Amino acid sequence: MEGEGTRSRGRTRLLLVLFALACIALGALTGRMLASRDSAPPPPDSMIVEASDNRRLMEGTQHRMILYSQPTCAASTRARGWLTRHGVDFEERVIEESNAPWREVKAMNARMTPFMVTATHRIQGFDPARMDEIAGDLRATH
Q: 46 — alpha (psi -120 to 50), left (phi > 0) or beta?
């Protein structure tokens, strides 16, 4: 009987040692992930690129801006609301895999949504301060 109790305690110790080793390994892995995340440059939240060739794309719309968005993108929702509140004349093109807006955005090397195009600018990401810079020229005229 005494042998069973010793074996049981031995198994419990072994399980505790294995659990401790797993926790240490997980901590080391998490530390590496955090270190690599902190050392890599963050992706740009937004950028404005001068794009004189956008005029060709804009010929297909009667609006002053094209907003490329995705249905589940919170930043796209915020951009749409901002543009509406500021009276910007825009056309929204919803990106779904392999549709025409998806191909247009892919051809422009966009990396995130929202992606906005005017005759002279490309704005990637939602950045109200940068959008303010060009919004005056994009307001709807009635």
A: beta
Mark out the alpha helices in the chain (DSSP H runs): 2-39, 54-58, 74-85, 100-107, 128-135
Each residue's pLDDT tens digit, 98-135 = 788 888 888 888 888 999 998 888 889 998 888 888 87
Are 55 and 94 in the same domain?
yes
Based on the fold, state whether residues 27 and 71 are members of the same structural domain: no
Question: Is residue 89 a contact partner of residue 63, using CB atoms and an 8 Å limit?
Answer: yes
Claim to verify: residue 67 and residue 101 sit in the same structural domain:
yes
58 in the same domain as 29: no
The pTM of this model reads: 0.61
36-88: pLDDT as tens digits = 444 334 344 444 444 556 777 777 788 889 999 999 999 999 999 999 999 99
Q: Are residues 59 and 88 in the same domain?
A: yes
CA angle, 131 as apex, 128 and 133 as ends, to 5°? 120
* Cα distance from N-terminal residue to C-terminal residue, the chain: 94
Contact 65, 116 (CB under 8 A): yes
